[in-house]
Write a structure and sequence with these properties.
- The chain starts with a strand and ends with a helix.
- The longest helix has 13 residues.
- Helix 2 runs parallel beside helix 3.
- It contains 5 helices and 5 strands; from the N terminus they run E-H-E-H-E-H-E-H-E-H.
- The protein has one domain: Response regulator (Rossmann fold, 3-Layer(aba) Sandwich), CATH 3.40.50.2300.
- Strands 2-1-3-4-5 form a 5-stranded parallel beta sheet.
- By secondary structure, it is α/β, with parallel strands linked by helices.
- Helices cover about 40% and strands about 20% of the residues.
Amino acid sequence: MIILVDDDSIQNHLNERILQIAGILSEIKIFEDAEAALSFIQNTEEVINLVLLDLNMPGMNGWDFLDQYEPTHPIFPVCILTSSISRNDFEKSEEYNSVSRFISKPLTVDMAKKLKEEFQIK
């Protein structure tokens, strides 16, 4: 399973389609609210192969999500998928053990294929 966390519904739809075009057959769950995504992750017994996380969201942002996520679920890899090109954001992402990648939007089919291979996603 792949979890997409982004408050932009159009971006989520595009990312879902890109993942499908890249040959990812795994279930893709979409959350426009980081709190709802965190609650789902904390309460599911399903295997999560990857979390694609936006940073800039209203309410709980990506950093808040990581602060609560990491102590309890560091085994699920997180790729930050953001429009931010800030060096500070990149450096901050390196402070989290669960963050495997920092990707600047837009997600491309080639990047999705690399993620599929790297994280052995079906």
